């Protein structure tokens, strides 16, 4: 079909061959096969030129439009490869995503003005593919081995209290001392249960279920309570960092700090559209320097 269209355009098999990079005889054979396959004459051959028949003119016009559409599609594909465009759907943990990833996306978006972003901040587990997310960031151990997971960062559980609280109630020396203290406990958004506190005791990790007067399902509310001297709190360092840096909270029980929890960037497979690939590369380039 390509040989036929160029033959009509050029008026000769030799010129058509030069345009599409094959010999004149190959062009002639291609056109003959097309005519034979439909049992019609599309081009009248003379010693000087090629003249399309009436039917050949109709076929040429339709094929020319089809080939133009195909060329446009190919150009769009090449353009999308060189210039990322379209929407990226991302699922992020609420606090970590809002505090660290969204600000990174501001710089990335400035570099790629053709991209748009649909971001969900949610700590509840969800199926990446079923919910049509392009990318997700997951904190903790992985449950779906079908996804590609690339380590992006770490989250460190940290135990803190305000200087005012410690002055009033004393400094706990070991995790066992916490039963004598006011502890502010997080209620899990996913399980609805009170979160156990984790400590490394010797070579083992120990998880403690603490009774508390204050059980709250929002981590930042716990931070604000701890800032005001309501009690001791154990949360990821990325939630406590600003209060620690401002000396509103003091890190305690450092020697019992548990192992860091990995944070992963997840996506369905390696065959990602260019818009997702450039974001994946950008986030991975920031690995270890996000929080």
UniProtKB/TrEMBL annotation:
A single MF term (Gene Ontology): sequence-specific DNA binding
Family label: Belongs to the LysR transcriptional regulatory family.
Record carries keyword S-adenosyl-L-methionine: no
Pfam families for this protein: HTH_1, LysR_substrate
S-adenosyl-L-methionine listed as a keyword: no
Any one of the GO BP annotations: DNA-templated transcription
UniProt name for this protein: LysR family transcriptional regulator
Domain of life: Bacteria
Keywords for this protein: DNA-binding, Transcription, Transcription regulation
Span of domain HTH lysR-type: 1-53
Species this chain originates from: Vibrio superstes NBRC 103154
